[in-house]
Amino acid sequence: MEQNYKIENITKNSTNLEVDWSDGKKSKFNYLWLRDNCPTAHDKDSRHRMFNILKVSKDINPKKFSLNNDGKLQIEWSEGDHVSYYDQKWLRDNCYTIKNNLEYKSPYKLWDNSLQDRLKSVEIDHDEIVNSDKGLIKWLELLHHTGIAIVKNAPTDENSGFKVLNRISHTRETFFKTPFEVINIPKPNNSAYTAHALRNHMDLPWFETPPGYQFLHCLVNSANGGDSSAVDGFAVADYLRKNEKEIFDTLVNVHLKFRDMDYTQESVRSYYAPAISLTKDNDYHDIRFSVATMDALDCHPDLMDKVYKAHHRFGNLLHDDKFQIKFRLGPGDIFTFNNRRLLHGRTEFDPNSGHRHLQGYYMDRDEIIGRLRYLKNSVNSNQ
User: Distance between CA atoms of 95 and 89, rounded to whole angstroms?
Assistant: First the structure.
């Protein structure tokens, strides 16, 4: 049930209006913030801000203020001959004083090898996603919160992955094309296109913004070997944060260099980033790890030994059976995961014993989170 908080008292100081709410909470609303967020500041159609806050002085303040007959906060400003009207609910919903006093709650459900025994909890049927928004929401929540989902019983025709992915949004194009073929080929330009084992890794860490999510659609898997592995990089980072803080801090603070050839196969792309990056709330944002594409490091010589020891420890934990899970994809399975959280790999396979063919797709994180938010808002508005 939605709470309906009311303003009980307003006082003015040199930089803020201070508001007392009916539930005992207190808010401070900065004058520049209020003027910048006047409801008339935005175009009603595009919803983009048209008002330019840079045109007012830093000393702007309310010449008069009150709660009008409609219950709105009414402010007559000291400059610009302008009056603003603020809905009380909007002020409460956007109160940064209260927000900054709230304890942060992570949206992520971290997991370790115990997920191996609960693998069915991250499985969902292809047709459930295609035929219902409820199924789509379930899939998106698994991807956003747990970072992994395995779609079952998908068609095994080439390019058929688009049908379920289009339920979310458009895919992320790269020079590997969409879909890219995970298959053993002569003279490969990437180790994924071989029969070799692949260590747990992030795809494309040498991009400035690696793809947020990856979808590996199994069409055929009759070869001996080629079993999949996955590890929650956020969970491993969290273990280090709680138990080996010096190693954690090194992985957060020192930038590693990643590189690979671009689509011409004649020039190199590279990017510097820490192995573990954090959000403004100190939650986990990215895990960048790839032994195959980490370039020769060029950090300060006094740090080199410490960086290698931290990287070594992190890499070993990312392959530790305490954390990683192992499974075999069958035809019609789509292994879907957060590429910037979950690291994935595979065992070596024998191309002479059978055929192994996966098709891969990428999608940005914005598409997953945006679609999930839209669907949940739609459900709530219809209740």
Answer: 10
AA identity, residue 62: P
pLDDT per position as a tens digit, 288-341: 999 999 999 999 999 999 999 999 999 999 999 999 999 999 999 999 999 999
pLDDT in tens, 58-80: 999 999 999 999 999 999 999 98
Can you give the C-alpha Rg of the chain in angstroms? 26
Under 8 Å between Cβ of 31 and 84: no
- Rounded to an integer, what distance in angstroms lies between the CA atom of residue 165 and that of residue 175? 19
CA 335, 341, 344 angle in degrees (round to 5)?
45
Over the chain, what is the mean pLDDT? Answer: 94
201 with 291: CB under 8 angstroms? yes
Q: With DSSP H G I counted as helix, E B as strand and the rest as coil, what are the percentages for the chain, rounded to 5?
A: 30, 30, 40
Residue ranges and CATH numbers for the domains of the chain are 7-101 (3.30.2020.30), 113-378 (3.60.130.10)
Q: Which two tokens stand for residue 157?
A: 């025709």
What pTM, to 2 d.p., does this model score? 0.91
> Measured between alpha carbons, how far is 179 from 162 in angstroms, rounded to an integer?
9
Q: Is 336 exposed, middle or buried (0-12, 13-18, 19+ CB in 10 A)?
A: buried
CA distances, 123 to each of 132, 148, 375 (Å)? 16, 9, 20
